[in-house]
Amino acid sequence: MDLIATKRVKSAVLKKVELVSTNSSVSCTTSHIFTELCSSHYLNGCKLLLPSMTCDEKVSQDHLLRGTLIIISSMIQEGYSNLSDSTKRLMDTFFESVCLKQEVLVEFLTLLMGNSHFEECKKEFGDSWNRHSILYVTVDVIEKLSMGFTTLLNYIDCIKKLNRADELFTSQEELDMILEQTRTSMLSIIQKEAGPFDFLIPRILDILIHKDLITEAIDCLISYKDLNEENLNAYIYIYKFMIHYGDTEPNFEEIIDECFDKIVQLSPSCPLILEMVDYCEIEPLKACKALMEFVDYSENKENPKAWRKLSDFLEKLNIVESNTILDHYKFIYSSYWQNYHWDQLENEFINSELDIWKQKVRDILIQQIISQKSIMKTESVSSTEKSVKKFKMSFQS
């Protein structure tokens, strides 16, 4: 798009923004215009539209979150301590109507912390929560997140002071007392009921490892996993912790096996799957099914390690497992893998590591198909011979 066309688009969009921001009767179009603005990277127009978004009940969570990120982007560009009056007013308006009610405050605070605006994060969180705590205290998720974030901020504050050798920490006993209070507070949040508390897990693990409470850490992770069965991170956390600290636990293999099953189910293209089949004793049949689905994703189809591992596990299958995986392949993949994977092998000279392992997998599958057909043919001939023999005997009798 040339410069003149770009100016025309922005001019047209700006007129829509002015119409929406000054006329509440057309607020239903807010989401559509906001989408246009975001796709055009017209952030100034987005900022003009944000006050109208706070009044539009049809605006989605995604748009509200994007609006929050736009405000944060402005804050980072201007510098938190040098914010213009208009940006401050926009922040106040947006937070008043959206942040706590629409559950995007945590995203805002996380990004602030990620950009090292720790003190500003503490201030903004405190101000926002104090303004709305009475009005929105019935919103259960917000209350939980607020408790979790308060605990996290206290923990980070504690660590920062410790790193500065702050005079407040005059003894190991005092430090242990603060860590114990933080541990108790975090555990009371993440072990009561399901909730989006992933941001607390690494911190509670830091404390428990520091105090050498490995068994308690495992129990904490299992509890969090059980409460959040569809949370992928819950299984990733416990897998990584068990690999580093829990390999001597009596239920190690059982936990790892469950983690593998759930990670494959929740995220079949997760890179961690390759690591798990490499370092854990995963059953060959289960590993083959997982790796077949793994390479089925476009981002993984050119991964030589995945094809090598698939080849290795295919060769480990016994006869019954080979038939099972072959039926699985024919039912799901055989109709399109020729074009998706195998055509490349026929059209190019086989020389790369990727092509070598792809060809090996294809050859194994072809050999299994031939063997299966041969067995079926033998069984069919044998069955026919038995039928003929039985038929002849009936006449003789």
UniProtKB/TrEMBL annotation:
GO terms for cellular component: RNA polymerase I transcription regulator complex. One of its GO terms (biological process) is transcription by RNA polymerase I. InterPro entries: TAF1A. It comes from Tetranychus urticae. Pfam families: TAF1_subA. The gene is 107366749. This is Uncharacterized protein.
